[in-house]
UniProtKB/TrEMBL annotation, chain A:
SUPFAM superfamilies: P-loop containing nucleoside triphosphate hydrolases. This is ABC transporter ATP-binding protein. The lineage of its organism: Bacteria, Pseudomonadati, Pseudomonadota, Alphaproteobacteria, Hyphomicrobiales. CDD domains: ABC_Carb_Monos_I, ABC_Carb_Monos_II. Coiled coil: none annotated. Keywords: ATP-binding, Nucleotide-binding. The keyword Nucleotide-binding applies. It comes from Bradyrhizobium agreste. One of its GO terms (molecular function) is ATP binding. Involved in beta-(1-->2)glucan export. Transmembrane domains (TMD) form a pore in the inner membrane and the ATP-binding domain (NBD) is responsible for energy generation. Residues 6-241, 260-502 form the ABC transporter domain.
Automatic annotation (TrEMBL), chain B:
It holds the Pfam family BPD_transp_2. It comes from the Bacteria. Keywords: Cell membrane, Membrane, Transmembrane, Transmembrane helix. It is a multi-pass membrane protein. It comes from Bradyrhizobium agreste. CDD domains: TM_PBP1_transp_TpRbsC_like. Its main location: membrane. The chain crosses the membrane at residues 23-44, 73-94, 99-116, 122-141, 153-171, 201-221, 250-273, 279-296, 301-320, 332-349. This is ABC transporter permease.
Amino acid sequence: MSVPQVELKNMTKRFGANLALNNVSLPIRSGTVHALLGENGAGKSTLVKCLVGFYHPDEGHIQVDGREHRLNSPKDADALGIGMVYQHFTLVPSMTVAQNLVVSSATLPAYINWQSELKRLARVTRKLPFHVPLDVRVSQLSAGEKQKAEIVKQLYLGRKLLILDEPTSVLTPAEADEVLGHVRSLTRTGALSAILISHKFREVRRFADDVTVLRRGASVRTGAVADLTDDALAEAMIGEPVSKMVQHAPKLPPKPNVVLSIRDLCANGDNGLPAVKDLSLEVRAGEIVGIAGVSGNGQLELVEAMMGQRDRNGTIAVSGSSFNGTRKEIARLGVYGLPQEPLKNACIDRMSLAENLALRNFDRVPLCRGIAMNYRALAEQAERLVAQFRVKAPGLNASMSALSGGNVQRAVLARELTQDVRLLVASNPTFGLDFVACEETYRRILEARNGGAAVLLISEDLDELLGLVDRLLVMSGGRIVHEVSAEGADKRVIGKYMAGMKAA
Amino acid sequence: MSSISGIEPVPPKPLVTAARLSVALPVLAVLLASAIFAAFVALYGQNPATVFGLIVQGGFGSSFAWQDTLSRAAPLVLVGLAVAIPAQAGLVIIGGEGALVLGGLAGAVATLPFAGTHALPMQFLMLVAGALIGGLWFGLAGVLRQYRGVNETISSLLLSYIGIAVFHHLTEGMLRDPASFDKPSTHPIDPSYMLPTLPGVSVHAGLAVSLLLAIAVHVVLRYTRWGFALRVVGGSARVARMIGLAVNRWIIGASVVAGGMAGIAGAIEVAAVQGTANSSLIVGYGYSGILVAFLARHQPLAIVAVALLIGGMQASASLLQRRLGLPDATMLVFQGLIFVCVLVADAIAQQLRETTRR
């Protein structure tokens, strides 16, 4: 019944040319909680996916109680007592908790003797410090109860090492404390070890014994939580400015006129819970305002609410007029956008490149007179934009998915930035783009700013933001929690706000 | 990559094959269905060659056959459009039958209060009444989808059954002509209001109406900003919202127009063929329209051609029955086979496209 000593040794994992894990070692002492910190894309998920047998590391191995193991599938991980609690729930909503637990067993007999199974279940759960109602349907549980049920499931399955992947991202702070508190006390009694993936410093400090910080696939800091200060952790997580060469255009003093003004904006996420809470901000002409934040803190919902893609409360005004995202308002007020993943969020795959280049002005002269489209003018415009923005494509009639990611982005830049832009909303505009396309995107955004447009730039990449913005806002939990001008920006302070350590 | 920018002239090939594929696949599907159908009639003890010969003869072999084919093609074109228009907006609406019979009912009763006036405005009134009711019926499916998240395919099919039930309820109750004994019908419309016969071809004027509407739909979808916007909405509602299109309005609007087409089909059947609304309207035109639209790949002009083909097949059914004693449902079997083969061909085409993209 003892909890094994698990150790990941020298793990390296490549995806094509991309080095996702670079010689990472992770020792998990028996009966402790080991926190894994890092920004998005730092390699946390890749590392634990190796540990549960989803990925096979290119180099390195896993040691359990000093013996080397190869995990070829999640079944092998199961045999070693390694289990994972995912960020999103994996219980069947229409079944009761008890039914969920029983059917989750890997070796289920063809005939289930429910009575004996339920008795065994009651025996197991009675010993646990926390109570989950067993005969209630999962759909009727609160998020916190569901998360507890997930953990009970892992214990019921006899797991000795639990991996918790941002388990509190869907929980209220009180629920989070309760769930993590139970995990902590279970490890204290020696029933369990746990890996806690998080980017909330508070949780790490309160519930973890050891911590390892990952940055760009490498382990940059490891040790006992008590030995490391918050500052040290933040510095390790965010790191030194890396060589993303953005030629920072000389900053011009922003013009006094406010272009974008958001007052008390509220919007719900897809799950129906508030994602943007009473948010207010202003962007002036000739100014780039950045919004930093860990993904999932309401940035996506903010952008969608602004662009008229999501229901909202509160007022959004552009140059003094209320803005609801209708076609007339967009053209009159000059509101354009650079969404992330442009192929999916800014292009119509089943329409041609030329048609995609016309999405903004297809209903205006010269592309359209009355209701009649002028496809010759549409082709001419496409030819001009393709040449001007150096879009490489198999042809003007090619479908968008025939273009490379960088060229899709160039097409979107061409379409959005050749309009009369007075407000540009860019949301992770370089996500997944190669270096050249990133550079070009930055250059075009700066050009738009220098041309007098107001720019709101939402990004999860702090280096990118600090290279571009005039003013930086930090978003956390659906609110703006921090504001700083580009000159006075301290990454460690910003990192703390991003991690929700400080509230405004 | 010698040129820095611009269009590289090298590989236009995949486009050509894609265009060819979209023509070749339905043709192949029909051929495959024909082969299976041949086996089916052979099992029935008939010579497939004779059967196919009779189909051609019964559908297209004489001026009488053409007349029958064309008058069947008229409603098929319209219900085909009723599927093809929402398809542009990314919807699969298959409830044409309900909109058709309700449109027929509305057309049958719209002119009853006005006996003995000019024929032309009354004929117009019948078609408009049919269009309005049909549009309402499809519009419901669009509203349910946009505001309640109900799948439009299922809701339109269920609404179709409700529509047929309402039709029976009214034609056998409130709106029944007491003089109709064996076949409950509405009061017959004034004979002078019946749609005239087109000169030269002796087919009712409904054919001209449906051809004109097919051309109009083709022009609107292909050459106007409305067609462009509808394709954007169908391509991605997200992007459509980003560029400021009112997605709900476009989707519900497309549904209403499509339902209007099916409703006009019903009104034409009443105003040109039946003279009253009765159960003869419920012969499955709405369902055949789904086949027509899918086989024509939702292209309005192709719909006209396919409607002629399917209309001809249906017209030949009675000949097959008389000459060979094949059951009435034979042609339904053939249509069903074609439909299955088209759907399979679509699935294969999708996979081909995805593998070539990799």
